[in-house]
Amino acid sequence: MDKIAEEQEPQPGPGPGQREDSPSRFATESSPLLLQRDPTPSHHAANGSARPAKWTQAATLRAPRLARDAVRALPAVLLGTLLNILDGVSYGMIIFPAAGVFADLGPMGVSMFFVSAVVAQLTYSCGGSGFAGANGSMMIEVVPFFHILATSIARELGEDHPREIIATTLVAFAFSSVLTGLTFFLLGALRLGILIGFFPRHILVGCIGGVGVFLIITGLTVSTRMPDDDFALSLPVLRHLFLNAALWAPALALAVLLRVVTHRFRHQLVFPLYFIAIPAVFYVVVAAARLDLPALRRSGWLFDVAASREPWWQFYTYYDPRATRLAPLVSTLPTQLALLFFNILHPPLNVPALAVSLDIDVDTNKELVGHGYSNLLAGFLGTVPNYLVYVNTLLFYRVRGDTRVSGFLLAGATVVLLLIGTGPLAYIPVMVVSALIFVLGIDLVKEAVWDTRHRVSRFEYITIISIMVVMTVWDFVMGVLFGIVVSCFFFVLQNSQRRSIRSLHTGETVMSTVRRPSAHRAYIREVSKQTTILRMQGFLFFGTIAHVEETIRDLVDGPRWARTPVRFLVLDFTLVAGVDMSAAEAFMRIQRLLHAKQIVLVLCGFTTESPVGRSLRNVGLLQESGVEAFSTLNDALEWMENAYLRTWFSAQKEERDPIALPGRQDVDLGFHHSLSSSPRRSQLADIGNRTIARDHSIDSRPTQQEPYDTLVKAFASYGDVDKELFSKLVPYLERLPVPEGHVLFQQGDEPDGLYIIEAGILRATYKFTDFTLIEESMVPGTLAGELSALSGETRNATVVVERQAILWRLSTENLQRLEVENPHLASSFTKLVLKAAKTDYDILLASLAARQ
Fold first, then answer.
1. pLDDT single digits (tens) 773-785
2. Do residues 555 and 573 share a domain?
């Protein structure tokens, strides 16, 4: 009894935030009309009686909902059907050229349009699209390419082979659908839809403008029954258009009037009702004036009735493998590729725009797969390519066509139109079709020429106009290729004008993050005027490298060289995306120039296996003498500062204890034997005597004791380190020998004190975010962990012993005891520590800023 009661309970209503008619009530998104099984197992399953009963119950409960959805979708289906009629008449009638063997194939094009629309509509409604009410049909922009395919095949086979021409042309159209579908499917399946977004949008806009001009010309030829091939900007054609203005002028006037009306009234039904009213008014006038329909047809006001008596499937009778010729098909491959290029650009642009307009989250790659299925099926059914129509879908949603049911109903209505056949076309006024074509053409030209006038750069606007001109004067394939070439030219021109040098510094403004004794730092700050740093950016190619080369030549040949000669030239590639062969060879020329002036070229910001590193290695730059390479700018600065220090100390005659230097230890510049033989060397000697030599006067004293010597190294530049006063600090300090690799403390640890380095090297790592790391070396005569010890906050870095060290630690307990027992000494010591810390952190912040 419980089971029977459970089966008789009504189905739950929609969840919170879910409409009663939401598509999620169906079993699956891709198969909305399939009934959902109840996952609850039944004890009646053994005899098979319960499950059919449950399915019957579910079907009974779902039937009213489907009926409500169908009734609710009727306005949307009516609007979608009207739009398909208008699109089918305007697009389908011009699929084939209106000349030669194709002159009477307009109705056949309409049938092919409706077959493609039905295929697309069913594919999207069955789950091929994330938009439940997606509308699909043929793409109007490919019509010019169809004309090129048809005319090229006719020209190659000759007009005296009509059956072969039509059969081969139909195969070419179907092949374009298969090629488009396969490309869409692969792009979506491999999730490469984002790649299409990299194509320049202004080329597509120019092509759209060219299609607009083509449609306006087509409107003129359809109205006047002029063959497409006969249209030209010549005096006879202009005379013909003037004499037949009564045929095309009303259609053009109706198109302009529609745009005036829609500018004032923006309701979605204005467009279809307007074109329904035109034939109604036309036949009212015909009836009132008692005009003869055959006479109107002969004079070009109605379409030829003989061509419209064919059934919808008539185009299949033209498919004939024996009449199809392979050679013309192969010769159309360039046009097929251009058509494919135009086809695949639209969905990745339309789908995101439609998702924003409807506030629906969809997967572009899934939409591409759906487009692949619909176009493959269209190709196998022998019809033209299709896609999701942005405007039709948007209007469909606005009149509540937002369910799969509405999509299936629209597909059914389109099938009815297909079955009715092309007979009614004989009674459609030509001006209706011409006005539709004019409207589309004017809209596309306006979109390309008027709407973009303030939205694109001057070069892009010139490209758009140029593409339209080439497409109109020559052909569409040439226009696409011309647009790509012009865009590449303007891209090179524009990027060559961009600054490839982001900034230019000297070593005195950009220093490494190594903590050094104050005297060493003062020496480095002055001698680093001989270091010039160029931070480059972007992609270095033949258009941008000229500026870099010219700047470097000015540095080593111009007046600046006379004022401040350069010892090291640093080229920072951190922000460089790549280097082409022309730029790499330019760096070889730069290296030869620098080598002649005994300037060391220092390269940094890349690894040898990176794209930049491979480009420079391929031309042999990294193997040249006088070239040094580092992975980061800080490593390069550290190496050069060590070179300056080692140069000064190596030139001293008196014996000194060797200094500890971090980083690479292979610095031998060959100019430390004499510091007076050139202006650059004399400058090093003069600066060293004013900074380091003065600080090392303590070495001449007979005996000194630690930690006083280390305290002098650390604080002598910031104030008087009185021996009598600071000797009282010794009982509070603890001497710690620490081995290499020992972790002194980690970031986030509670502070245990501050450390003064007597010997060895420490390395601190600051981790600001998951991706931002800064490393800082600490040499003898510097501090570690001072700010966290004074503030009581957690450690802001991880410090590791890089080279066996001797440290003096002032623990937090001893620091507190010092503040109580000797406040004057504690205050003096704290001030010196803060002064040293400020200098260290200023340099650290400068290093962080230099990365920007």
1. 778 888 888 889 8
2. yes
